[in-house]
C-alpha cells in the first residue's frame, strides 16, 4: 500500500544552509532540548485510529443480471401455417390461455370421418344388443313353412316315382318295355329322392335361423361389434389430440416477452423452443414468468454463500434504491471464463419486481454471518512490507513501526484482524511528513 503524502518534501533553502554554516545559535540549549523532545514524540492523535472490537456482518459483493425465473419459446408440435395469433408483445397471459392456432382443415376432415365411424359402430352395436324385431321373426317362420311345403311336395313326387318304378318293373318282366326305358324311370326316382333330402335340409336350416332370430344376437357378434366401436373411438381420440396440437396454449402465467411470427407464417417444431435465448424464427412467441438474479460469485467467496441467505440488490438503473432477495440456488459446478473461476448463484427477488426488468445489470451484497466481537481497523491502515501484510503502529516514541497481522473479511472501509493486534491499540492511517518520507525510502 502506498500512503498519500501530506504536503511536499522540499530541499532546505540556501539561506538556512548559510545560517547553519556561520554557526548562528539563537535558540539556546533549553530550546534545543525542547525541540528534540517534540521531534521524539510528535502528536499522532489525528494520524491514528484505535483498534476496536465491534459487531461485524460479513458482506460479500458480486455482480449479476436480472433474468426471468421461467421462460420458454413456444412453437407448434406439427409443421404448418400460423392461422391466428391472439397476443402481442407485453401482453400478460394465464396458464392454459390460447396463444395461437395453426391451420387445421385437414385435421377437421379426419375428425368428421372418425365421428361418422363411431356413430356407425354405435348403431350396429345397439341393434345387436336390442335383438330381433317381430317382423324378422315372422319372416323366419314363413321361411320354415315354405321349406316344409317343399318337403311335402318332394315327398309326393317321390311316392309317385316309386309307384311308377313298381308298375314298370312288371312291364319289364313281361317284355313290354326295354331295360333302357326302365333305367330312365329309376333315375327319375333317384332324382326325386335327392330333391326330398335337399328340401328336408332346407327345413332344418330355416328352423335354425328362426331359433337364432328368436334368441337374439350371439355373444360373439356383440363382442365383435364392441371391439369395432372401441377401435373407432380410439381413432377419434387420436384425431382430437391432433386437433388440440394445433392450438398453442400458455404453459404458465406470465408475460409475452418476444413475438417471432405473424399470421400466415410457416412455422415448424423446434428442439430449442425451451431456450429463451435461442430466438429462432420457428418459434411463435416467448413467454416469461417471474424475475430472479443470476450472480457470478468468485471461487474464494462461494463457501460463505448458502441457500436462504439475505441479499441486497442495487440496479444500475436505480442506484439509490436497495432491493431485497434471498439465495435460492448455488450451482454445483464452477464456470471458468478467461482463467477466472466463479460459481453461478440464483437469487429470488423479494422486492423490486415492479421496477426491475429482465436484462438489467445489478450489484449484489450477500449478508453473511454476524461477528459479535470482531477486531477491526480502517482498511486504509493496511500496508505491505517485503510481501507481508500488516499495519503501522506507534512505538514508545510515536514512531511508525511495522507489525504483521492476519486479516479476515473486509466490510466497507473496515477490515477484520484475526491476529496481531489487541483492542485499544492504535494504528496509523497516515504518517507525519518526515516519517512518511522515511517509510517511502525504506519501501524503495
Describe this structure in words.
With 444 residues, this protein is α+β, with helices and mostly antiparallel strands. It has three domains: 1-20 and 42-70 and 289-444, Beta Barrel (Elongation Factor Tu (Ef-tu), domain 3); 71-103 and 245-286, Beta Barrel (OB fold (Dihydrolipoamide Acetyltransferase, E2P)); 132-216, Helix Hairpins (Orthogonal Bundle), CATH 1.10.287. The chain contains seven helices and 20 strands. The chain has helices spanning 14-21, 28-40, 105-130, 134-174, 179-215, 219-245, 433-443; strands at residues 48-50, 52-74, 80-85, 92-93, 98-102, 247-249, 254-259, 266-267, 285-298, 310-315, 318-330, 335-337, 340-349, 361-378, 382-385, 388-394, 400-404, 406-411, 414-419, 426-428. The strands form four sheets. A six-stranded antiparallel beta barrel has the order 2-9-13-11-10-14. Strands 6-5-3-8 form a four-stranded antiparallel sheet. The chain has a three-stranded antiparallel sheet with strand order 15-16-17, covered by helices on one side. A hairpin with a 5-residue loop joins strand 16 (388-394) and strand 17 (400-404). Helix 4 runs antiparallel to helix 5 (179-215). The two termini are 12 Å apart.
Task: Please supply descriptive tags for the structure shown above.
single chain, 444 residues, alpha+beta, Elongation Factor Tu (Ef-tu), domain 3, OB fold (Dihydrolipoamide Acetyltransferase, E2P), Helix Hairpins, 3 domains, 20 strands, 33% strand, rod-shaped
